[in-house]
Write a structure and sequence with these properties.
Elements (H helix, E strand, L loop, with lengths): L1 H20 L4 H19 L11 E6 L11 E10 L7 E2 L6 E4 L17 H7 L7 E6 L19 E11 L6
Antiparallel strand pairs: 1-5, 2-3, 2-4, 2-6, 5-6
Length: 174
C-alpha cells in the first residue's frame, strides 16, 4: 500500500513539474503568433500595412456592381492556409460555394467555431463586389481565436484566398 502511494505521488510530481516548466501562457502564445505573422508580412509583402482591425487585405481582382453590404447574402469560394503551407486546410472546392449572410465583424466572436463566423471574412466582404478576388491574411483574433477548430490549433495566423461568386442584396426593411 505504501509503495503504491509513493509511486503514485512520484508520478504526480513528475507530471506537475513537466507542466510547470512548460512556458505556454496565453500571452506568450499570442506573442509568438504575432511575431510569426509580422515576419511573414515582412518577407512576402514588405511595406504593407494592415487595416485598423489587423486584417491584411490584398485585392487580386476587382469585382463588378455594388459593394457588398451588411445583410447581403453572398456565395463565395475560398481556400484557407497556414502561413507555412501551400496545401489548403479548409476549402470550398470548385463546385459548391459557401453561402454567408454578411454580418458586422464587431458582432462576431473573437474565437470563431466555423468559417462562416470568421471576422476577417465578414470584414473583407464589405470591401468586395461580385466577382472580386482577394487574399486575406489575419491573426487568430480575426479567425479561430485561442481555441482553434478541428485541424487548426489556437493562435494560428491564416491566409484565405477568397472569390465572391454571387451577391444577393439584402431586402430593405419595411
Amino acid at each position: 500500500m505504501k509503495k503504491r502511494f509513493v509511486t503514485g505521488w512520484l508520478f504526480v510530481m513528475v507530471i506537475l513539474s513537466f507542466f510547470a516548466c512548460k512556458d505556454n501562457s496565453l500571452e506568450k502564445q499570442r506573442k509568438r503568433e504575432i511575431d510569426k505573422l509580422n515576419t511573414y508580412i515582412r518577407d512576402n509583402y514588405a511595406g504593407m500595412e494592415p487595416r485598423p482591425s489587423g486584417l491584411y487585405y490584398i485585392e487580386q481582382q476587382k469585382g463588378t456592381g455594388d459593394s457588398i453590404r451588411i445583410g447581403d447574402i453572398v456565395q463565395v469560394y475560398f481556400d484557407m492556409y497556414t502561413l507555412d503551407s501551400d496545401v489548403p486546410l479548409i476549402s470550398t472546392g470548385p463546385y459548391e460555394p459557401l453561402q454567408v449572410e454578411v454580418k458586422h465583424p464587431g458582432n462576431l466572436s473573437y474565437s470563431a467555431s466555423d468559417v462562416e463566423d470568421i471576422r476577417a471574412l465578414h470584414e473583407a466582404l464589405t470591401y468586395m463586389k461580385s466577382k472580386s478576388k482577394a487574399r486575406l491574411i489575419f491573426d487568430s483574433g480575426l479567425g479561430f481565436g485561442q481555441y482553434g477548430t478541428p485541424g487548426i490549433v489556437g493562435f494560428t495566423p491564416l491566409i484565405m484566398d477568397l472569390e465572391v461568386y454571387k451577391v444577393y442584396p439584402a431586402q430593405p426593411q419595411e
